[in-house]
């Protein structure tokens, strides 16, 4: 089923007129009539009672109208949320990280993340764990990578393990 035909149908039903729907949709009136007729043929039902001067939806048309409006609202919601995701994920992310992590682990993790979100760039500042935590608290960076056990020294910060690695000396 074609979403555009549903949109045309909903507009005709809402306005009660093929001509006014055509005007609102910036289409020729015959094109609106053809789209509705094709939708009726596809569904094998009559959507409008055209016997009087005013058009009105049939029982089937009223049911389709309700469902089509819900569907079109859902499509709009999906487009809106995806657009938000695309638009929100652009700009520069400020990251602070200890030197060893910045050198050995962060490049691979960051490359994968930035590959998924090409609208983002990252600035990495190298600092010790305590300084990284303080930078987060002072809103100097959006993301901090630290070493140590989960939980950290500050309750205000949320800690998530990225890598668990046992270090051994020989």
Give an account of the 3D structure:
There is one protein chain. With 170 residues, the chain is mainly alpha-helical. It folds into two domains: 84 residues, Arc Repressor Mutant, subunit A; 82 residues, Periplasmic binding protein-like II (D-Maltodextrin-Binding Protein, domain 2). It contains seven helices and five strands, in the order αααββαβααβαβ. The longest helix has 30 residues.
Keywords:
170 residues; mainly alpha; Arc Repressor Mutant, subunit A; D-Maltodextrin-Binding Protein, domain 2; 2 domains; 3-stranded parallel beta sheet
- The CATH topology assignment of the largest domain is Arc Repressor Mutant, subunit A
| SS class | mainly alpha
Q: How many domains is the backbone divided into?
A: 2
| Run of helices and strands | HHHEEHEHHEHE
Task: Tell me the layout of helices and strands.
Layout: H1 3-15, H2 18-25, H3 29-43, E1 48-49, E2 56-57, H4 59-88, E3 91-97, H5 99-104, H6 106-116, E4 120-126, H7 129-137, E5 143-144
Parallel strand pairs: 3-4, 3-5
Antiparallel strand pairs: 1-2
Helix pairs in contact: 1-2, 1-3, 1-4, 2-3
Offer a quick outline of the entry.
By secondary structure, this protein is mainly alpha-helical. It contains seven helices and five strands, in the order H-H-H-E-E-H-E-H-H-E-H-E. Helix 1 (about 5-15) crosses helix 3, helix 1 (about 5-15) crosses helix 4 and helix 2 packs across helix 3 (about 30-45).
